[in-house]
Amino acid sequence: MRMTSYLDRALIRFGNTVRIRRDGRTEVVKAFVQPLRRRHRLYINDRYIPAGYFDNRYLLYIGPGDRPLYDGMRITCNGAGYTVVTAEIFAAHDEDIYVWAILMPVSRGREDYYDDFN
Question: pLDDT tens-digit profile of 74-99?
């Protein structure tokens, strides 16, 4: 059995319905979308973030590996629109297993992303 089939079954059973705008058309996938909770000291744009800081304005996306996301893409989940801040594919054994991404609400501009921690 392929590694992705285990994740695909979990996404279908427990995932949120997500609409991805790609090349002028909409794709519907199942993905895990949840608040991104920062627990460690991170340096975003060379700025210090205090340990234990939580920022619930961003979401973590984990979706199928055969549907890559790219910076700036628009997606919809639970009626809210989001922009992909960054995304990467996790691969193992020559297989794209899943895509993880950080999402921000469409209402916020990308330039606001790095100003959160001033």
Answer: 999 999 999 999 999 998 888 888 99
Backbone angles phi, psi at 85, to 5 degrees: -80, -50
Q: What is the pTM of this model?
A: 0.74
Phi then psi for residue 16, to 5 deg, are -85, 150
What is the DSSP secondary-structure string of 67-112? S---TT-EEEETTEEEEEEEEEEEEETTEEEEEEEEEEETTS-HHH
Domains annotated on the chain, with CATH: 3-113 (2.40.10)
Tally Cβ neighbours within 10 Å of residue 75: 26
Query: Comparing C-alpha atoms, which of 55, 51, 68 is closest to residue 114?
Result: 55
Taking a C-beta distance cutoff of 8 angstroms, is the pair 10, 98 a contact?
no
Phi, psi of 107 (to 5 degrees): -65, -20
Is a pLDDT exceeding 50 seen at residue 33? Answer: yes
